[in-house]
Sequence to fold (464 residues):
Amino acid sequence: MKKIYKNMPKDFLWGASTSAFQVEGGYGEGGKGISTTDVRNVPEGIADSKIASDHYHHYEEDVKLMKELGINIYRFSFCWARIMSDGWNVNEEGLEFYDDLINRCIENNIIPFPTLYHFEMPQKLVEEFGGWKSRKCIDAFEKYAKVCFERFKDRVKYWGTINEQLIVSAASDLNGNHESDQNQKMKNMYQMSYNMSVAEKKAIKAIREIIPEALVGPVCSMQVIYPRTSAPEDIIAANDAEDMLQNIFLDMSVKGKYPKRCENYLKLKNYYPETMEEDKELLEKYVPDFIGVNYYASTCIRVREEGEDVSKLPPFFRNELFTLGNNEFLQKTRWMEFGIDPSGLYLGMRKMYERYNLPMMVTENGMAYSEELVDGKVHDEYRIEYLKAHIEQCQRLVEEGYPLLGYCPWSLLDLVSSHQGFSKRYGLIFVDRTDIDIKECRRIPKDSYYWYKNVIANNGIYFE
Ligand code: BG6
Fold:
């Protein structure tokens, strides 16, 4: 018989997520500098982030829609280049934009929850010293974080540091790692990631001084890894993948050191980053308050056969230790090619709690689909089904006593996908534009919006 879980506690945070380069637009407006995401090579016919969902001009309406939806937390990100156009000097107009957004959220009883770094930085910093490749980026990030903390300290309690360090590292070329020598590229990638970890800790140190009551945490791309078979070499490959894709980043964020397996690997491959003596104390001393969890699907991993060509797979799902397998037990769709796996959310967070013992918040979880308006509406029953199944797992976690602070589906509204434009949509609210025709970016709530509104009002899935 299907188990029915209790609804959420009264203080549970129901939210929704976006990120700056994916919704804002406002390219070159209000003193915004050029972001790394503004200069990437977007193929012809796919939307870029120059207008995106035009949130920069629609944010008042967007906050009203949030209020109407009933969310009590809004997870978004600051665009570093809007706040500091060249990475060093403060752009007052950029801060004012976020002042207004934050104030409107608060007036509507919505907790503002910004992430400092969601895939983008001022392009100037890449030109000046190669972005995260240089330790100068640690100083720049610390300065930027302090500007944000000082400005918003009276209004912002929840903070995210870095969104998905795995993806930032894997797509390091978007942040200036243009090395053609593969070995050097890998070495740079781990150096960039290490510098990010030090920068994150400097930000946590600063927030403890500037906003002692703040709650701060990294946002990870949770890796729920299943071995392809029960063959011991597949199991080891799956364990390696878990270490190299998740623990390597989160252990740094929480424990301030690499897992032994990763340390060995980095040394063996000569990828071990350059460190400074003083980093050690910083890394170990400043522990986050919670972990933000982005989860879309689990990953199936198998051992890599000798001589096997895996060059077509995404770079982070293959190395000499492991490669991607196929999980035939999961239902797949065009955009959800790994399959749909709500139990993975439960299992992954359970394991995460055992390893780190910190409260968690679902910061992203959603279903992508290509959609159009039909008679002025979007009937996205597939998304409702996806969200329902995942919220149910959240209720299961809470009922079993795991500290889950909140749930923020991705995304509040349709936005530019990280690299697949506007034909891949995740929103609860439809944004009326296509990859090539920007129209007026009208907002139209989808069926999932009304369904989620009901979930929030009932404080959980309402069981008939
Ligand atoms: C996460 C990111 O990786 O997944 C988001 O934090 C991203 O920025 C989301 O949009 C979905 O990925 P994609 O590639 O479908 O946009």
Summary: Residues 19, 22, 163-164, 167, 221, 294, 364, 368, 410, 417-420, 424 surround 6-O-phosphono-beta-D-glucopyranose (CB under 6 Å). The CA atoms of residues 29 and 79 lie 12 Å apart. The chain has a mean pLDDT of 95.
